[in-house]
Fold:
Amino acid sequence: MKISPQPGMGVVAEGFDPSSDSDVRRLKQAAYRHRIVLLKDQHHDPAGLLEFGRLLGAPQTYYEPVYRHPDVPEVFVSSNVATGGRRLGVPKTGQFWHSDYEFMPRPFDLTIISPRRVPKERRGTLFIDLVQAYRRLDPDLAAAAADTEAIHSPRRKFKIRPDDVYRPIGDVIAEIDARTPPVRRPTVLRHPRTGERVLYVTEGGTEAVEDADGRRRPDLLKQLLSAAGQLDETTEHPAIHLQTFDVGDLLIWDNIALAHRSLHNPSDEPAESWRVTVYDDEPGFNPPE
Ligand code: 7UC
Ligand code: FE
Structure:
């Protein structure tokens, strides 16, 4: 397997052999060291994508059934097309800064995307490295964040489902709070695999930052998000990496070190991608030099 750097962030891997333990380990090492791996010449059906996910960790089925691929529930479908008259998944997912499952007790370790239909323009996913975001903080902002906690919730970005029509919105919100109550963790957390400090806050998923006295600090959260580049609506901020991909690629990324958001595609050009997300409990990986 050949691994070569790509501009900005991440690497491209070619010639991956799924039967080679050393290729699998090198692939994971690359994902944690370089955050993004673009794997070429990959053609999987849903079952094949799930098998690929099993190489990297334990695939998880998304908690909301409406996203699940009807044949392989561990595959999450983002799609605006009806294939053979059958609508799959949910359209326009993730169009805000987030980390997958940040609102759950354990966010996913690795996210794997298989693009199925790629729009001709305004396509791709934006990424921000939250380890670099922490390192770039000016010292007093880093000090202010040090002993705070961040509170995450899916509330603001939860997609209304077809069965929610005519339901009182208060009932939907009560259901969200019951099934996915806000979770709290250190604003600056240790990356579970590499041990690096991560400024783990996102514009779409973090509801508040609370200081050691339990006081909410909206000002501080805003400063941290702004410093990380997540409040720049032009998406031209130097910390933002645009990753494009094509059908036949597989995109793997470190979902703890990176915040991501899919590009808003105003046209109704067909767009569909399949996703598998995994927990990876393999013993740690060396932090990037
Ligand atoms: O519809 C979406 O944008 C899905 C998002 C709310 N959560 C994706 C995840 O894996 O946490
Ligand atoms: Fe996502």
